[in-house]
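Researcher: Dear colleague, please comment on this protein.
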Amino acid sequence: MAADFCPDRMKRSANDRSTIPAAMGALALAVIVAACSSAASSAASAPSATTVPSPTVPSAGQPGSPPAAVYSNVAYASTSSSQVLDIWMPEGATGPVPLVIFVHGGAFVAGDKSMEIEVGNVAAVLAAGYAAASLNYRLSVEARFPAAVQDVKAAVRFLRANASRYGLDPDRFAAWGESAGGYLVAMIGTTGDQATVLDDPSLGNAGVSSGVHAIVDFFGPTDFLQMDAQFGSAPPAACNGQVRAYDSADSPVSLFLGAGVQTVPDRAAAANPITYIATAKTLPVFLIAHGDSDCEVPNQQSQILHEALLAAGATATFNLVQGVGHDEAILASQTPIALEMLKSVFGR
């Protein structure tokens, strides 16, 4: 979660959203630098997961740069200047088209919607014939939980309410994210059909569903209370004992929650997508993937989400990818799988 992409890219993204105070920005970038330097060389296994061989070419299967956004910096709410999104349409689009909504990572303290362009996600979706949207949300340096979750749900509501205006099919929405973005799309997936504290009517379109039909969650955290214990019990061999700690008061997760993780267990539970699975009336199809050499987020975080979804009768796949850490290398093997899943869900 801490380092979705490498330092040069994250530094620019953080600077683009210049609300980060110096001390907190240094913390975020330190986390990112540490993650980008971690090695990825061993294999592990987990129950109920499909183990996928390590890709040899990290950018394999990723089309080139997408065209300029058809709609740029569209405000989906009016509480903050962070509440904006971009929309792309596939070439030759006719009639309403399915939409994939991208949510960037960055440990909740950094990042920008442009990151999804840089790693090829937007281009891959457009090449498949789907529309794409990439959004910003309030980072933890601006507002603490549940603000970011409320924002991404408000963005889904806005896009559905304005689907006809933008040429989108409101009955074929998906959400895709890595790391912190993976966490946020998982929250969309498990809460989209029910009223929770994660819905803020003041952000607009209160009567519109924030549900989606498919979720692509790459190495997102789920249960903040278990992260340190999971790393302590089974750290990946590739990490050489150097794994991220989250219970400290200045960790990215604690900053997101507004207090040390273990000091606010009720808030941490409210921030857990698994909390909402039992009360969901319907659940989207989930594709979850995690590297077995991730030194930033324990791969057990993805495993427990997968198990909870299966226990509730949801359709969910969990791929544990060999030799991959907490970075975009996972896209090489998993993007084609994600596109096949979307094709199945969207019916095209």
The longest helix spans residues 331-346.
